[in-house]
Amino acid sequence: MQDTRILVVDDHRDNVAIIRDFLAARGYQVAVAHSGEEALRQYDETEPSLVLLDVMMPDLNGWEVCEAIKQRARGSHDVRVIMVTALGEWDDKREALRTGADDYVTKPLDLVDLGERVERNLAIVREGR
Amino acid sequence: MAAGIILTDAVDHARGELALPAGWSLERRDSADLIAAIDGLPNVRAVLVTSDDPTAQRAAVEHAHRRGVPVVMACADSADRRRAVELGADEWYRAPAGPDEISWRLQAATGRMAPAGASLANRVRRDSYEDMLFDALTGLPTIPVMIERTRADFKAHSELIVLYLHFVRYSKIEEIYGWEKLDDVLETTATAVREYLDSHRLRATRMMVSYANDDDFIFFHVPSPESGGEPERALTDLTGRVRDFVIGKLEEVHGEEVAALVDVYVGSAHAYYDPKIRLERLIYRAIREAANDARSVEERERRSKVADLRQTLRDGAVYVDYHPIVRTDTGEVFGYEALARGEMRGLRSPEVMFEVAAEADLVWELSRLCRTRAIEGMATRLKPDELLFMNVDPHDFADPLLEGIPVPDPQRVVIEITERTAIRDYPAMRARLTRFRERGFRVAVDDAGAGYAGLGSIANLEPDFIKLDISLISLIDTNFLKQNLVETLVKFANEHGAMVIAEGVERHEELEVLKRLGVHLVQGFLLHAGAPPEGIRLFPNEDVAAPDRRARP
Lengths: 129, 553
Known about the structure:
The complex is a heterodimer.
Chain A: E1 5-9, H1 13-25, E2 29-33, H2 36-46, E3 50-54, H3 62-73, E4 80-85, H4 90-98, E5 103-106, H5 111-127
Parallel strand pairs in A: 1-2, 1-3, 3-4, 4-5
Helix pairs in contact in A: 2-3
Chain B: E1 5-8, E2 25-28, H1 31-40, E3 44-49, H2 54-66, E4 71-75, H3 78-87, E5 91-94, H4 99-112, H5 120-133, H6 143-157, E6 159-169, H7 172-177, H8 179-199, E7 206-211, E8 217-222, H9 232-259, E9 262-272, H10 279-315, E10 318-327, E11 333-342, H11 350-359, H12 363-381, E12 387-391, E13 413-418, H13 426-438, E14 442-448, H14 455-460, E15 465-468, H15 470-473, H16 480-495, E16 499-502, H17 508-516, E17 521-523
Parallel strand pairs in B: 1-2, 1-3, 3-4, 4-5, 11-12, 12-13, 13-14, 14-15, 15-16, 16-17
Antiparallel strand pairs in B: 6-8, 6-9, 7-8, 10-11, 10-17
């Protein structure tokens, strides 16, 4: 778990801080980004196994970032993307799926739920699928 | 690794806590002495700057980079961070930060700085330059690189042959399989092309390949001097061989179904060296010529496919595959989806056959033939209580002959309409469906979840069946989003008195999840095989349904 890297992307710094602290306390290495552009840069640098991605951001939105990340990851390493969204509607989920997302959590965040989702997605990465 | 030093001006770090590589140590200097230490100490591996004085920050970055040492900056606010970017700091973190975060930043920065002496800025520039010259997906050089590499040979041998591989995909491939599949297919094409070049060194001549970004590939071939120029016939042979090799590879890697949805056409052109004309211009002209040649090959092939289709319609040369749809609760066959295929080789794939028909404006004729064949087969292929699922294209609804199709017992026929193509006029569609319903037909919405229609518009059609698109099913066992979407649809269907059919079920894990989510019916290759792999029972309560795989007459 020491070398499991997670990238947390959200333009709200408070959200990022909460999620980062929560995940760091569970022993993950956490990188953060506060915009879509920064997320892609951080992604390239840290090659995380998991990305927590906010949908609503000012520059690139979460869909675009997710698509870009999934494109980059192809052939190099497996990355799971969990979308963090205030929206829970069918169309949004389908959009998330179209961009290659693997899971989602809705706001307001339930940290226990988040922790479980993170773990079950990482378990799949570890199994090498 | 030799002992290393990390220099810092930080006052407040609990030094012991930073996770540093074995043998490395952290040395603290006051801001005033930091620069001298950067310049003077041996084995400095990184500099950690926490000062918020811009002058001190700048000096640290400049001196460190001069020695090829990476800099990590602590940033108290966004102004600091902007400065870190502007100064070219290799890493930064938002202060205050825990020891983990700082250690990680340090590791990231030192890890990247591996080539001694090269500053990160230079490295990044070089990387992105290389990226521009080599296509990221295919790993092939771009045309400017090819021209540079060919220049000398072309001048020496005064002849260059350009082959242009025109990659054509039927629009369905992305719709059905998604862009990942298309990328995979392109990657396979590129690999096949490279493999061909490696294994077929053409009489010690030079041959190179490049990617034109437009899904097409370009080969440069400088014939050997002894060959005295490549005769036209040999060239035609070569284009044919390249094509066959690539198509063979695509079938091998992705299967016939996918390979049928792409085609490659190869054209060629000669360029002769002329010192009076700029070399680039000669080469680009040849590329254009070869591309035109490839397109005219494509034209010819398309015309011959249209001719094949007309022949098919005259002879009624389509056959029907009946794909079983199986109940998840009992494992019994519930019905079959009829899928028509052309008997002629190039029209085997239904997608291709219908795309050719659309080009030639023969969709109605082809659809009628396919429907007739599908219904004819009911008597012999289906048991009396089994349903026939039949695709009806939105265009078909405009066919005046559609509503009159003679069907012995319409109660056993389910009309599948796709959600993929947007239904523009819902009231008109509902009215048509009502007329069919009055005759006893049932209705399925096909490819649900693939198109852009939301749940509301699915409800609007009042379907008896909702067929989930393959994109929702494949690998559903590892994708929780898909599971959630399917769950939503099952709930929705149960509320509306409809049944859900999952299409494209290929793996046991998928089947298990679908059963758990309450999906009523399943369809896919997993259900096709005469018997499941030994030791596995698809449905515990039932001797496994063993429908015939192919219904070819």
